[in-house]
Design goal:
161 residues; Ubiquitin-like (UB roll); 2 domains; 16% strand; binds FE2/S2 (inorganic) cluster
Length: 161
């Protein structure tokens, strides 16, 4: 397909690319911007490894064509830590043993991040629903659920502060 200029916001900064609009947002993030924190898994919207925020909503970036991000804001896992400080979700995942091979972790954290922004005091079943599109082959989900619940008050405090 003919290339197009796409102008958007990536992790709070203006971004511009000249690209085939059918190329996936996942490829844009990894190949054009070198942000490899977002993982390439199934490529079919089934595993959630490629989850990023598009206009604040968690999406499977492998399913979003670049043409759709024109004028939008995109947030990746790289935007969560600030310098040396890791995000409360990243801290809780490490502390609760929710990271094993780590492949699902960035996508899982981005889904949890989007969810906790609009649900600061979640119940466990709500957390399970929020991450139901993210597959983890290692942990059995219990530690992930515990990490998200543990991070919720900390993230709420940060959002209010
Ligand atoms: S790589 Fe996008 S959902 Fe699996
Ligand atoms: S930690 Fe290995 S897939 Fe989740």
């Amino acid at each position: 397909m003919k290339k197009q200029v796409i102008i958007f916001q990536l992790n709070g900064e203006p971004a511009e690319i000249h690209i085939d609009p059918a190329k996936s947002l996942l490829k844009v993030i990894r190949e054009e911007f070198g942000l490899y924190g977002t993982k390439a898994g199934c490529g079919k919207g089934e595993c959630g490894a490629c989850t990023v925020l598009l206009e604040g909503q968690a999406v499977n970036s492998c399913l979003i064509p670049a043409g759709k991000i024109n004028g939008c804001s995109v947030e990746t896992i790289e935007n969560l830590s600030r310098g040396e400080d890791i995000h409360p979700l990243q801290k809780a995942f490490a502390e609760k043993g929710a990271v094993q091979c780590g492949f699902c972790t960035p996508g899982m954290i981005m889904s949890a991040y989007a969810f906790l922004k609009s649900n600061p005091r979640p119940q466990p079943p709500e957390v399970r629903t929020a991450i139901s599109g993210n597959l983890c082959r290692c942990t059995g989900y219990k530690q992930i659920e515990a990490a998200i619940l543990a991070a919720a008050p900390e993230m709420d405090k940060e959002n209010k502060g």
